[in-house]
Amino acid sequence: MSLDIKELTNNRPSEALEAMVRGLYKYKDNPKFIIKVSTYGDAEGSICYGCMATCTIQELANKDLLPENIINGYDRANYLGFDSDQLRDFEWVIDDARSGKLAPLWLFYFSHDGGEFISQFESRWYMRTCNWEDEIPKVKRVIKELKEAGY
Q: Which of 24, 52, 101, 149 could be cross-linked to 96 through a Cys-Cys bond (beta carbons 3.0 to 4.6 Å apart)?
């Protein structure tokens, strides 16, 4: 039985964003992991590289990826216990979310893109390797607003 990302986040986009924030801070000072937006997963020796999505999925699975399973999406899914298709889709929407695009995250959870409701939250941040910590307060404000609206 695979871990279900929607269940782990209580079917709430706000909880996916919270997991992203927690994961970023968890891996920020980890000597075996370097946050690098340009890759879902890479390794050099015993050091893993990963983006916001990589931090998020490790946080949700409560498990650290290793150099031998971080590079390939199927290997990531298998090691962390996720369905590979769901994990691929989730990684893509978290990558969009880190650049302030929330409609794909909405589509991951619901059968519509959120329309006008979600458009009010779009483009409030753009997280890169060099600035993600500066952008976190903006993400946290949106998390709060989504929770207040029940999402």
A: 101
